[in-house]
Amino acid sequence: MVSIKKPYIIFRNKVIMDFARVYCDTPEKLLKSPLFHELVDRFIEKTAARGSSLFAFLMEALPQLKRNDLTGYLVNLFRLLSSHSSEEIIEMNNGFEPVLSRREELHELVEELYNYWRRFERFLYLEAPKRHEATNSALHGVQFIKANEDFKNLVLYVYRRVAENITGDSPRVYRQLPAGANMGMLIEQVDWMCPPLYGSLAQVPFIRLSLVNPPVILYPRSNTRKGAFEETFELTEGMLRLDASEWFCYPVKVGELTAFIFFHQDFMSLGLSLSNLFETARYEDIRGQKPDLVMIFGLHGEWAGSDTMFYEDRENNILTGMVRYSEDVDYFGYFKKMALTLHNIAMLKKGRLPVHGAMVHLKLKDGSEANVVIVGDSGAGKSETIEAFRTLNAEDICDLKIIFDDMGSLGIDSEGRVAGYGTETGAFVRIDDLEAGYAYEEIDRSIFMNPDKINARLIIPVTRYNHIVKGYPVNFLLYANNYEQIDEEHGAVEFFSSAEEAIEVFRSGARLAKGTTDEKGLVHTYFANPFGAPQRREEHEKMAAFYFDHIFKSVPGARAGQIRTRLGISGYEHEGPRTAAMGLLQIIRGFKGQGAAS
Fold it and tell me: What is the largest distance, in Å, between two alpha-carbon atoms of the chain?
């Protein structure tokens, strides 16, 4: 663990900057900054370690200099090159002539130094003054956005100016790359109703505004999620002990619940990526308020057992999740699924049935419309089938609203109907299971994670908060069967004749594992939902019986069945969900779901 005692830290492949302390508004300040000096020094060390021709060039041109003197020499040279041509510098100081006379090699060194900087995951934050009213907050946001843009433009300007003064020529192509920070955040100290048990969290600043400069490509250490979230029946101050100066809190809305998600700075890339997945909570949801959910990611916890634990704090009416500091949990799935586990347990307490699945409202060009819930565990094809609807949009569909993409709950609305409610405004999906090219069509909104590896993912906004909390009556509740072929008898969509038959299939939770977790082959997960359902099995069974019975007996036009996505069968990764979507569209044609669009 690294403590942020300096204005910046460089850790693994990340640079985290306190913008108030590293702020530069001129080329001279940027090139004189300690951060630039350290970057040049690290770059030289890296080129030396790998025996690069660039390091050989420096050694040949400057044989009189020792390794420790190279950094200062180059920093001084770059400062001069930011305002003078090579010829002018040689006239002022011929000590730079051995390097400046070899323009092509020096230019290549500058290009590689620039690329070295851009290969870091770069984050900056700025702390706003503490306030007591939710007024005038927009001013700090505007200033932060402008400062971030100015920083990007300054880096670009310095890089280009130095390169032009080396070559004596201007580029014919200008690439407006995100040369500043990939992501940024405006933080603020906010007083919340913090129970004594959580006292160590009281001084952690809250993220009030986040910035994403796409394309954002991140490389967390892990690429799959392992194990289950275990319940602990004891929570002590020692388990929650932390240094607030190393932590941030992202307050979000998980459905209608307020969650305070605390994360250690070493997991900055994952924590800030929450901006593409959940609605950011308002100031009024934080100040003087107690959250429904608390998640603490990156603890050096004093507990035995699993790295991922949760605790039901009945005294304070808070569900608390804890993730121990480890490279093994450096994967966004832990952030997402722990938050959803807490949500699901809270929903069971409220009398709702949590569902691991996706829900979409579809309206066809012939006036038909329906609300469809597709239930399935990771890799079952629920999101991919809904994504297939998007590709069919021009042909059949005139309106498509995603209510939830991965996790939601079933409740009873004011008219006594089973209705679906969502949790997330974004989606965390496998790139390989999307239509070819779609991920890159959305590159300006997406956060990519390990795009070169198995289970490559992107996080992308897919819906709006008002849709996920509105409550849409359910017309079709379908289990995503990714392991069976389609035949003439069953077709892509098969409906069950009774609640008991439906519950048996949903409870079995069978699927062919797709490599999104550490599972392999045909596996079974209780109700396709390892996030809260198995941990509260008794309550879940009661809710499942109630809601399935309600669908079969009490809701006109509602049906339950299964949809064969074939996503787990080799060769059907794209055709399977598309065929399933087309089969469902055939059923929806002519269907006017009662209250489908209400």
Answer: 92
In the three-class reduction of DSSP (H, G, I as helix; E, B as strand; rest coil), residue 105 is classed as helix
Neighbours of 464 (CB within 10 A): 13
The token pair at 270 is: 């994952």
Specify the length of the chain in residues: 598
* Residue 25, CA distances (Å) to 6, 70, 427, 444 in order: 20, 26, 37, 27
d(CA 575, CA 248): 43
216/221 Cα distance (integer angstroms)? 16
Residue 389 CA to residue 581 CA, distance in Å, equals: 6
Q: Rounded to whole angstroms, how far apart are CA atoms 390 and 397? A: 8
Return the bridge partners of 400, or none.
Answer: 362
Please, are residues 346 and 314 in contact by the beta-carbon 8 Å criterion?
no
Give the pLDDT confidence score for residue 597 in this predicted structure. 44
The distance of Cα 45 from the centroid of its chain, to the nearest Å, equals: 33
**Residue 495 near residue 559, CB atoms below 8 Å:** yes
Whole-number pLDDT of residue 514: 67
CB-based contacts of 504, cutoff 8 Å, min separation 6? none
3-class DSSP state of 149: helix
CA–CA dist 466, 421 (Å, integer): 10
Cis peptide before 215 (omega within 30 of 0): yes
Q: In b/e form, how buried is each residue of 184-204, taking b as 16+ CB within 10 angstroms?
A: bbbbbebebebeebbebbeeb
| Residue 440 confidence (pLDDT) | 59
Q: Rounded distance, CA 261 to CA 273, Å?
A: 12
Answer left, alpha or beta for residue 367, where phi above 0 means left and psi between -120 and 50 means alpha.
left
- Let me know how many helices (H) and strands (E) the chain has, helices first: 18, 27
- Structure tokens, 63: 């044989």
The two tokens of residue 127 are 């702390």
Model pLDDT for residues 472-484, shown as the tens digit of each residue: 999 999 999 999 8
The predicted pLDDT at position 132 comes to: 58
Contact 290, 192 (CB under 8 A): yes
* H or E element in which residue 538 lies: helix 537-553
Q: How far is CA 405 from CA 98, 197, 517, in A?
A: 60, 35, 18
**Is residue 62 within 8 Å of 98, Cβ to Cβ?**
yes
In the chain, the domains with their CATH numbers are 8-167 (no CATH), 183-349 (no CATH), 353-425+462-588 (3.90.228.20)
For 373-417, write each residue's pLDDT tens digit: 999 988 888 878 887 887 776 567 888 899 998 999 999 999 889
Q: What is the pTM of this model?
A: 0.90
pLDDT means per 10 residues, the chain with 598 residues, are 71 93 94 97 95 94 92 97 96 94 96 96 91 63 91 95 93 82 95 96 96 91 85 92 95 98 96 96 95 96 84 97 94 95 97 95 89 90 82 76 93 93 92 64 83 89 94 95 84 92 95 71 92 94 96 81 91 89 87 53
Given the structure tokens 């405006």, which residue do they identify? 186
User: Cα 276 from chain centroid?
Assistant: 6
Sequence letter at residue 179: A
